[in-house]
Amino acid sequence: MTSGPDFPPPADRPPIRLVLSDDLERRRLTVFFRLFMALPHLIWLALWSIAALFAVVANWIVALFQGGPVEPLHGFLARFVRYGTHVYAYLNLAAEPFPRFGGRPGYPVDLEVDPPGRQNRWTVFFRLILAIPALVLLSVLTGYQYQRSETGYTGAIGLLVVAAVLGWFFSLARGRMNRGLRDAVAWVVAYGAQVWGYLLILTDRYPTVDPETAIGPLPVRDDPVQLDPSGDDLRRSRLTVFFRLVLAVPHIVWLLLWGIAVFFAVIANWFATLFTATPPRGLHRFIAAYVRYELHVYAYLYLIGNPFPGFTGAPGSYPIELRVAERARQNRWTVFFRLILAIPAFLLNAAFGSLLGVIAIFGWFVALFTGRMPEGLRNAGAQALRYSSQTNAYLSLLTGAYPYSGPCLAPAQPPPAPAAAVAPPDAP
Amino acid sequence: MRRRRFWAAAAALLAVAALWAWAAQALWASTDPGPAHLPHVDVSRFFSDSFLSRSASYERFLAIDGLLATLALLGVLTVYARRGHRLMRESAAGRVGTGILLGMLGFAIVWLVEVPFGLAAVWWQRDHGVSHQGYLSWLVNSFLSLGSEFLFISAALAVAMGLAGVLRRSWWAVATPIFAALALLFVFLSPYLIPDTHPLQRPRLVAAARQLEREQGLSGTRLEVEDVHRFTTAPNAEATGLGPTGTVVLWDTLLDGRFDNAELRVVLAHELGHLAHHDVLKGVGWTALFLIPATALIALLTRGRGGLARPEAVPVALLVLVALQLLATPLFNVVSRRQEAAADWAALEATHDPAADRESLRHLAIASLSDPDPPSWTSVLYGSHPTIAQRIAMANAWEERRRGNAGN
User: Which of B90, B97, B146 has the CB atom closest to A310's CB atom?
Assistant: First the structure.
């Protein structure tokens, strides 16, 4: 009689997984001093990384000869990656308690790493080279770069930094971390753990930026502006992928021309909503079509969708579908200050935009060779596009709902009819 | 009833054909190309034997390369006309949008097929020192220029397919004047669409241009310099724009010291001659005349695919349009050569300097490695200008006539 595990892991379970048990509660005092409080951990992590460097070289040689890592080295490096996850989660406000220095399990943003398994020797040998695209993507998600040019400073800030900075203000004000911002940080931290796990030969599964794989089941949100990518089957036409940039030119020109009209429509919408609290039906429909069209064009341009989109932004006309709810009453104060209130969303949108650009470049090469867009890249890109559309909808007063910063899903079906149309349940 | 309709249609067609012929005759006659018969010129008096042999070999390669590229273009478009409609599955854009996609993809495939011929031409030009553009730079620029090409195709197909959806078979009758109007708008705005230009800043040359302008009955012509030295060493100039946007554009390779002021004066006078003769406007007129039978034929030949209202007819329309353009190119070249000859004559009349004219032509040929006396088949297919030999002959003829007038 043989014995095995009671609950065998599902075949598609990622070998390096994030386990989130954070309750979003934050102490303002530790939030305020978070950067300084994390310094001992950052120093310890740096020292530990020196030892990890020697361990990974040994692990690489062993894995090359044995076809997989050995337990002591694997355990040491897994603990190192787990500790890094704890530290970065703490530093970026995805978790509250001060982490332990040993990387033991049990932290609210924790990491599970599968035991050592067999790995393809070729991928072990070329691991450093193979990891380059994942490292580039990670640097876009975590880093910030700026450079001085003739016209001033230009730069890009990663999603992790923007979400952490916004989360810092939010936590200080509310004593709680915003769920969306926490999930955005957790997404990047989880992806970072996968990348490091791959680089340190803990697994040969290539890191995926798919938010669902990274942080587990995503919240299903019934937002007024929802993105549903379920119509896309990931297949891509190599011909249209190769020429995607130039094929999108007529759409970009049309988007610019339509955008001029929308600019004035949004101003009119602002005045109308300020006085009546509800956007006029015609303006709402006109601007919603534009926001939907913009989503279609960007989905096409960035390879998140495959077919050539129509020029009208008609609902249901594209596999990457944007659902915009009917107009609803909005708070006049938030309408009046909409431009200022949208500033944090602009910052996050810029970070998502950087991610989208890298996704498009990597996706272009992959789709050109395989005829398919990797699901992880498509899903991450869809999240970036969803945030962009929600930001545009918020700014143009289509909705008063603030863009949701974390990864999320849309309900499988369009939202049910308004409550008023449904018969109330019988009284008990 | 059916017979009466047939005769009515035949009469209408005849009337349109007569009107077309009258307009073509009027446009043709509006350009005076100078003397009808030019004396023969022995080009070896102006160019060394080694240059003549080198330029002939240089142009022969480019002509054959161009011819092969044209054959490839026709082959690809023929296949595309048969199978292109299968790409409709790549569209979620409705009738017109799908047609636009098919139009763009047709030219995208043509671009792919023509890349080797383009690279061969770049290699040949680099090898002969006429161009110093890198292969990658050429490839990227060529790829990105597809964007503007796609914009034109999209606009044209949106108009044609939109009209075909409403007017069915007779869309071409309305589309042609719209296309002509769009062409007019484009040439009006074209001086502002040329990248990397700046105003001519040589006071002596500007003063000379203003004087030549007055002599040719013009005023307020914009004088611009286009920076092209990063890509080519060949010198060139063009007249563009209409009325208030009339502009003479000199390539900066003309101003790098190889041409003296007298020669540059001739070049300016030639381009101003084009503006004085309204050649840009006449070009739009010729385009409109070409479009009438072209659009009618497209409407006729796409009926098998349900007419141009259907996106699956677009690949066929592309083939018909390109084939007609290729057939019309020698005719357009005849018109263009006539206009260039007229501009040459105007430049001689304005500058009274045939020696500078001959020298500028000699320098132009040497710098561009142009064969001064190419075979007639290349002139027919690619010759938008009279040959250098013919242009030198014109300068000689002008000089002879002046001597004759002085003698009288």
Answer: B97
